[in-house]
Model the fold of this input.
Amino acid sequence: MKKILKADLDMDLNVSKFNVFFPDTSFGLDTARSALDPAVSADPSLADLAAMGAGVSTDGMRVAGVPVGVEAWLKNFVAKKARLVITDVAKLDVVSDGLIHTQMLNFCQNARMAFLGRNTPPLLCEFMSQVDATIVEMVYRLGTGGGHVYWTPHLRKFANMKIQVSHFRGGFRITPNTDSAILALYSASCALVVWMCNHEGTRPTTHFADAWAPWLDLASTDS
Done:
């Protein structure tokens, strides 16, 4: 693996980030380690893995920035990320230009949660809504100098709509992650299904389809 990464991509494998995930809640870390070490030692093709001292995980791990694991671990991961974004939103107070400030809120901070929304289940939308509320509140404060605290619930609801709808509808186009995350997840899932149905690699398509959705014909629009 180390040789392939270096030869094909000119990249060095970061051993400290390398983990083997055991998706079984009945496994403890010691049990997982005791199962991994003999398996690696018995297979010559995994010699590099043995030399790296790879870590093990039984609750979750991050793959290309995407959290993969049990529900509690996923929630903790996304909650931490949401808190980081909320903290960084407050740091933008040093930006005196209102337009630049708003653009950084939208294209920098708001976009950070959009990636997770596309790759995590909808059960994590509660953390998305916290970030949405923080960003909208900051836009209110910038635009009104704090006067928004006296708005009625009806006026605030109207302002929310104006902030989040598209430019061509007269809004600010700061898309709420709470809503877009669900749509993005289904879009990404559909793209994966299409890829599996059209895969022409060494493994038959049916292997991927059976693993993803047993007893369903993924090539059928009725599935």
